[in-house]
């Protein structure tokens, strides 16, 4: 069984999935990198994915989920910082991005140092978007480890910077790359995969198929393979950073024009996340009575707590309360999930419907 973790984007609200992950570490008595074979993340979820797989000594992760919670509480003000000069140039972030990238870059270098993607303790998938080639971009630790693809290995701090470069909030990330182009211009992967669950699912399926093909080649060197493939079971945990509930009445938005600049990101992020949730519920139905193959934990936000960039201590405390409530309301589900993660509750064999991906 392949155990997959997917973490949404959502800025400072990443403290919500971080708290859920801390609870999972507590119940399983294992670090997240040992509970999952693949961890996918977008934006703040990408930072969590990288932080939870950054190695320390003897193959152990340097940071626990509780440590990553502290990142939001300790470094929030540094990440979302605005000098007086930047405020003047930005003019309310109409003419420029809302925040200088210097703050977030310093924090990322502090936490990740010179650790590279290929050093991740388990497989990691982090999303971004290439603005010059107008294409999605996937940072993959599996590819970074491949000696045939040295261009796929990046500093973790650069990967984190790229996936969290949200338009209107931060400038694009200019990342050096070992190709003839020399660099790539990347922005937040949330514009196409704020919920990277489907990306994670497809990656897990692709990896399973690759392993199956390799096994068959070694078993049947003549090339006479059985074409009827059996896909491995997948257990997928998807963690949200909050569902927007603030309505956008027609009477208010019908002549918004340029005022859509910031709200459109929220609409896109929410729409993408909801669509992926629907798709995964269809692709990963329960394997049997009381045995889930797909878990989605999400909280609802209201107009007073739906900002991605607040650093107010009261607001952060509110996010922690939302996470605590989520954990309490899903106590039994979390217990069941943790039993499955520690193999005390096996997933029954069930062949999922697989969509063909080009």
Short description:
This protein is α/β, with parallel strands linked by helices and 358 residues long.
Q: What can you tell me about this protein's structure?
A:
Helices cover 43% and strands 12% of the residues. The protein is of the alpha/beta class. It has one domain: Cytosolic phospholipase A2 catalytic domain (3-Layer(aba) Sandwich), CATH 3.40.1090.10. Strands 1, 2, 3, 4, 5, 6, 7 and 8 form an 8-stranded mixed beta sheet that branches. Helix 1 (15-28) runs antiparallel to helix 4 (65-79) and helix 6 runs antiparallel to helix 8 (156-163). The chain is globular. The chain starts with a strand and ends in a 17-residue tail after the last helix. The model is unreliable at 224-230 and 346-358 (pLDDT under 50).
Strand content: 5-15%
Major pleated sheet? 8 strands, mixed
* Principal-axes shape call: globular
Question: Between the first and last Cα atoms, what is the distance in angstroms?
Answer: 24 Å
**Given the structure, what is the number of helices?**
14
Assigned CATH superfamily: Cytosolic phospholipase A2 catalytic domain
CATH architecture: 3-Layer(aba) Sandwich
> Percentage of helical residues?
40-55%
pLDDT average, as an integer?
87
**In total, how many beta strands?**
8
CATH fold-level assignment: Cytosolic phospholipase A2 catalytic domain
Secondary-structure element series: EHHEHHHHEEHHEEHHEHHEHH
Overall tally of structural domains: 1
| Uncertain spans | 224-230, 346-358
Please write the CATH class name. Alpha Beta
């Amino acid at each position: 069984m392949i155990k997959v973790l997917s973490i949404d984007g959502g800025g400072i609200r990443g403290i919500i999935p971080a708290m859920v992950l801390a609870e999972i570490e507590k119940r399983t008595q294992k670090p997240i990198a040992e509970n999952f074979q693949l961890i996918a993340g977008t934006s703040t979820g990408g930072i969590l994915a990288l932080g939870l797989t950054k190695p320390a000594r003897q193959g152990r992760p340097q940071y626990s989920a509780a440590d990553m919670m502290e990142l939001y509480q300790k470094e929030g003000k540094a990440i979302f910082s605005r000098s007086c000069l930047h405020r003047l140039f930005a003019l309310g972030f109409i003419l420029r991005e809302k925040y200088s990238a210097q703050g977030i870059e310093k924090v990322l270098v502090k936490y990740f140092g010179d650790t590279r993607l290929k050093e991740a303790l388990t497989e990691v998938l982090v999303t971004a978007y290439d603005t010059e080639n107008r294409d999605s971009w996937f940072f993959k630790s599996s590819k970074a480890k491949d000696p045939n693809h040295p261009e796929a290995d990046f500093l973790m701090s650069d990967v984190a910077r790229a996936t969290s470069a949200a338009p209107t909030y931060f400038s694009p990330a200019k990342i050096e790359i070992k190709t003839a182009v020399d660099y790539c211009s990347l922005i937040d992967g949330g514009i196409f995969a704020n919920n990277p669950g489907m990306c994670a699912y497809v990656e897990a399926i692709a990896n399973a198929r690759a392993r199956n093909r390799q096994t068959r080649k070694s078993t049947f060197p003549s090339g006479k393979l059985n074409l009827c493939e059996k896909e491995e079971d997948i257990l997928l945990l998807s963690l949200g950073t909050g569902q927007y509930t603030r309505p956008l009445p027609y009477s208010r938005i019908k002549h918004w024009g340029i005022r859509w600049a910031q709200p459109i990101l929220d609409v896109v992020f929410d729409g993408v996340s909801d669509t992926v949730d629907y798709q995964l519920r269809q692709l990963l139905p329960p394997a049997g009575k009381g045995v889930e193959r797909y878990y989605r934990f999400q909280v609802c936000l209201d107009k007073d707590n739906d900002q991605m960039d607040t650093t107010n201590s009261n607001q952060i405390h509110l996010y922690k309360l939302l996470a605590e409530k989520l954990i309490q309301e899903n106590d039994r589900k979390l217990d069941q999930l943790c039993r499955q993660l520690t193999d005390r509750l096996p997933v029954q064999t069930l062949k999922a419907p697989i969509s063909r991906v080009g």
